[in-house]
Amino acid sequence: xxxxxxxxxxxxxxxxxxxxxxxxxxxxxxxxxxxxxxxxxxxxxxxxxxxxxxxxxxxxxxxxxxxxxxxxxxxxxxxxxxxxxxxxxxxxxxxxxxxxxxxxxxxxxxxxxxxxxxxxxxxxxxxxxxxxxxxxxx
Length: 138
Prior knowledge:
Elements: H1 24-35, H2 68-73, H3 91-96, H4 107-122, H5 128-137
């Protein structure tokens, strides 16, 4: 569980707004938390004790910066000003819902591992020393 806390970031938490398993009350709490003026500093990574995980709610991982995910992805966010119960009837929500199709991966690590695996299988390394050097550089 502790290894998965990385995904509880202020940048990714807004993806939960498109999850049908997240209830309307929780979505309202997320929106409210994103509009609060306190705590303007960025939350780089969720730093919580494992013993307190069960007491946390999704809104606890939201900051004012959480909304920037829409701007970063170029996704419309006009639906955020209306109640979540009305979102499914709005065209801007339907357009933004396309972010559900994005794959969530630990991109750098997974690409690095795949690259090394492909290189090893193709016989690019003539010796263990070359492989170790490539691993250090990666």
